[in-house]
Structures
1.
Amino acid sequence: YVEDGCCTRCGIPTLLAPALFTDDPAGSGCYVSRQPRDPGEIGQMVEVVRNAEFNCVRYRGRAPAVLKVLATVESDVIDPPRGR
């Protein structure tokens, strides 16, 4: 997810993963429009996390493969899952 109010419109998410991110038409930034579906898209998402400004792109999921990759490159963007 993209942290609310954090996006600086750097363009990195839509450049590196255009199938996964969309620019907000109201001009407030971008958002995750679709979750990654395969290892290639997970790689694109990780590249966004590594290159975007201010750690605005974050992960709150439970997928072990994603957690493992993020823990090795950007562990400070992993948030505890909500709910159960």
2.
Amino acid sequence: MHFEKSTFKYLQDLYKNNNRDWFADEKETYLEAQKNAKEVFEAIHLNLQKHDEIEKSKMMRIYRDVRFSNDKTPYKVHFANSYARLGKELRGGYFLRIRPGASFLAGGFWEPSKEDLFRIRKEIELDASEIKDLLEDKNYKKHFGGKFESFSELKTAPRGFDKEHPDVKLLRKKGFIASRSFTDEQVLAPNFAEEVDQSFKALRPFFNLFSDILTTNLNGESVI
């Protein structure tokens, strides 16, 4: 199962004609593109279930919430899907967005709760060696460049943490995300679902480590 060129063509046309009249006129084309995207997302879900426990797979709605946005275009110009892991022990989540010229996958902790973020920072403060080893892992570097993305960062250390801490760059992060971009050619390739799965597999050491951190205290004792 793979993305069809016609699905990409629809998204490109939607970008140029992002209005309700055009969308209504092209409703059948939209439904065909949506069906193709659903099938690929489901194939990826089935692959994920072979090596992880997924609680929910959710395809995002194409309709934009424009109430609080300066951009009043009514439709998203991409297809996207999230995959939530199962239970309190399995932390982290997977995400995939398909958009011509701007497709990517991601996984991790986008906006962790205050409690989770504090626990991660305390782990970094105590000993960040396992996290840094993860970033240096050959497979992780191959898929994600050996770094964490973050939606934003503090300019200095968080309140209560040493500004001179050797791992202050990690302490400043407000989220911990691994991401990988794809070219249009990669997305349209017959093996795209398998390539996504290989990247998702490469996230497991990251998820395993952070799941362990978030389900134990600093003494390694379970808190769930």
